[in-house]
Design a protein that fits this description.
The protein is of the alpha/beta class. It is 40% helix and 13% strand. The strands form 5 sheets. It has a 5-stranded mixed beta sheet with strand order 2-8-7-6-5, sandwiched between helices. Strands 9-12-11 form a 3-stranded antiparallel beta sheet. Bound molecules: ligand F0G.
């Protein structure tokens, strides 16, 4: 059979809101054209993020009742710890309330001012937490990652020459490889690249950690794309990545298939003791880490379910079918489609707008107005800033709009609706108007900025 069907059936339904264009125009004005400020009950299809929006399985929901809420040493912790040990091979497992808490704990324990931490491309919270710990976060993606239209199977790979040079020149206690690389389009990292990174870290005495938020999607894409690995199971391939690293940081809100949760797992017992000691004031006791026992149960089950080949085949095919349909319609999308999202190339989509006209923001607002679809600008608004001494803002490298697909939430019909809306918007792209920022917070400005459309110059 050629028809792809979801490898699950629906047991619980949640109505989605439908609104009129007039409702959405009012909502946009009230939110100062910032989609983070639109109430979710005015969003028909929410593609702002794939994080924490997962639909849990019947097994996970059943596990919630079985959660052991003991303060210390709960049965749910023991199960969670066993699942993570089996998956990763790491001895020490430390739960945290989400990924960024794991980042903060690890970096505060490991880094000193002046350290440099290279990566294939750090996620924004990782970047901000590294700099908060006094380190310099350095992104070293391969050159192909900077060209949205380039067909390269492993745009998540790190530039090995640049990494070798950085390791030789700087004080580097830690290298982080993010799988898949969210910062460049959800593209996978190849096992060959990971092996080469391990060898470089060994040569220079640096630790290597995985940001494993989307480890299972990475494993599936490696299985599909890397020569000679097509027969290996996703679980086995994921394990191969974990084995090459000294530990991992995890936001379980992605491939943990849960709505909240995260963890650190590592081999070094002394470092784990430091982390367990440090976390008590912020995250809580080391056997619950800011989570309820039921959350640990749900995470344990999610980590078991996520490497199911039937699940991953469908997940990756669903995202790819949206990307391929848009590509076939001539819409400029990041190629090839990665693991968790389809990215529009904002500047190619709206070539009549300049980079500082915030073309990505024009697209996300117009897509919401047209069809009630919420997407996320990852471009000038999110990453732009003025230069040292207040020099004017320059254009950022890549200006993208992310259509992130939550796991097990939307059906193929929902995504057909999204594709139709994007195609309609693309056909009317000459009507997209420039945007300007009228107020912005000093850091992470996209969350709080107020904007308005402005007349073309
Ligand atoms: N690392 C990666 C690669 C991520 O994508 C995220 C979150 C984090 C770490 C932080 O984890 O949210 O649990 O604290 N990414 C979300 C996104 C927010 O929309 O891509 P967290």
């Amino acid at each position: 059979m050629r028809t792809r069907i979801e490898p699950y059936r629906v047991k619980v339904v949640e109505p989605i809101p439908f609104t009129s264009i007039a409702d959405r125009e009012r909502a946009l004005a009230a939110a100062h054209w910032n989609l983070f400020k639109i109430p979710a009950n005015l969003v028909t299809i929410d593609l702002l993020t794939d994080s924490g929006m997962t639909a849990m399985s019947a097994h996970q929901w059943a596990g919630l009742l079985d959660g052991d809420e003991a303060y210390a040493g709960a049965r749910s912790f023991q199960r969670f710890e066993a699942v993570v040990r089996t998956l990763t091979g790491y001895t020490h497992v430390i739960p945290t309330h989400q990924g960024r808490a794991a980042e903060r704990l690890l970096f505060e324990a490991m880094l000193k001012p002046g350290d440099v931490v290279p990566g294939n491309t750090h996620f924004d919270t990782t970047h901000a937490n590294l700099e908060r710990a006094g380190a310099r976060a350095v992104n070293l993606p391969i050159a192909a990652a900077r060209t949205p239209a380039a067909e390269h199977p492993f745009k998540g790979d790190i530039d090995l020459d640049a990494l070798a040079e950085t390791l030789a020149r700087e004080r580097v206690p830690l290298v982080i490889i993010t799988v898949t690389s969210n910062g460049v389009g959800g593209h996978p990292v190849s096992l060959a690249n990971m092996q080469a990174v391990r060898a470089l870290c060994d040569k220079h005495g640096a630790r290597l950690f995985l940001d494993a938020a989307r480890f299972a999607e990475n494993a599936w894409l490696v299985r599909e794309r890397e020569v000679g690995l097509g027969e290996r199971t996703p679980r086995d391939l994921a394990r191969a990545f974990f084995e090459l690293a000294d530990g991992c940081l995890m936001s379980a809100k992605k491939d943990g298939l849960v709505n909240i949760g995260g963890f650190l797992a590592l081999r070094d017992g002394a470092l784990a003791d430091t982390l367990r000691r440090d976390m008590v004031l912020g995250e809580g006791f080391p056997t619950y880490g800011g989570l309820a026992g039921r959350d640990l149960e749900a995470m344990a089950s999610g980590l078991e379910e996520v490497t199911d080949p039937a699940y991953l085949a469908d997940r990756i095919a669903q995202v790819r079918s949206l990307g391929d349909r848009l590509h076939a319609a001539g819409v400029p999308v990041m190629r090839p489609t990665g693991g968790h999202a389809v990215y529009l190339d904002s500047r190619a989509f709206a070539p009549h707008l300049g980079p500082l006209d915030l073309p990505g923001q024009a697209i996300v607002c117009a897509l919401y107005r047209l069809a009630g679809i919420r997407s996320c600008e990852i471009g000038q608004l999110m990453k732009g800033h003025s230069g040292p001494g207040g020099t004017p803002e320059g254009a950022v490298d890549l200006d993208l709009v992310r259509l992130a697909i939550p796991r097990r939430v939307y059906t193929c019909c929902h995504l057909d609706y999204v594709a139709e809306a994007v195609e309609l918007l693309y056909a009317a792209r000459s009507e997209l108007t420039p945007f300007e920022i009228i107020e912005q917070p000093p850091a992470l400005r996209h969350f709080g900025a107020k904007l308005r459309p402005r007349a073309p110059r």
